C-alpha cells in the first residue's frame, strides 16, 4: 500500500504564497503521474496541477502563471508553490499518485488551504 503524506497547508491572506509538499512512501513506480487536486465545500474535486515522472506538467487554467508543480524523483516528493493566492483557491488540497494503464491510484489525506480576503 502506497502512502502519500502532504504538508504545508495553512491560512494566508490574498496575494500571499504557500508551498505544499507530498511524500510518497515508495518509489517503485518508475513511470507515474503525481498531482495535486483540490476540493472546496460543495464542489467536485478538481485537478490543480500534475507532473509525470518525466517532468511533463499540466495545470488548471485557473492557476496557470500562479502555481508551479515540481518533483524530486529521488525522494518521491512533489511540491506545489502557490503564489498570488486568491480566496477562490481555498480548498482541501489532495496529493495523488497514479500509474497510467493500471489500477494503481493513491490519495493523500488532504491539507487545508485557506485564503482570506
Concise synopsis of the structure shown:
With 117 residues, the chain is mainly β. It contains no helices and eleven strands.
Question: How is the secondary structure organized here?
Answer:
Elements: E1 4-7, E2 10-13, E3 18-24, E4 33-39, E5 46-52, E6 57-59, E7 67-72, E8 77-82, E9 91-98, E10 105-107, E11 111-116
Parallel strand pairs: 2-11
Antiparallel strand pairs: 1-3, 3-8, 4-5, 4-9, 5-6, 7-8, 9-10, 9-11
Describe the model:
The chain is an all-beta fold and 117 residues long. 0% of the residues lie in helices and 52% in strands. Strands 2, 4, 5, 6, 9, 10 and 11 form a seven-stranded mixed beta sheet that branches. The chain has a four-stranded antiparallel beta sheet with strand order 1-3-8-7, with no helix packed on it. β9 and β10 form a beta hairpin. The radius of gyration is 14 Å and the shape is globular.
Amino acid at each position: 500500500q502506497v502512502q502519500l503524506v502532504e504538508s504545508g497547508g495553512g491560512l494566508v491572506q490574498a496575494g500571499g504564497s504557500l508551498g505544499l509538499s507530498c511524500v510518497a512512501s515508495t518509489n517503485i513506480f518508475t513511470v507515474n503521474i503525481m498531482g495535486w487536486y483540490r476540493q472546496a465545500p460543495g464542489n467536485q474535486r478538481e485537478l490543480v496541477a500534475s507532473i509525470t515522472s518525466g517532468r511533463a506538467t499540466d495545470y488548471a487554467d485557473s492557476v496557470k502563471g500562479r502555481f508551479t508543480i515540481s518533483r524530486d524523483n529521488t525522494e518521491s516528493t512533489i511540491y506545489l508553490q502557490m503564489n498570488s493566492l486568491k480566496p477562490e483557491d481555498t480548498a482541501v488540497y489532495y496529493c495523488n499518485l497514479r500509474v497510467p494503464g493500471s489500477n494503481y491510484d493513491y490519495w493523500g489525506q488532504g491539507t487545508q488551504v485557506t485564503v482570506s480576503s
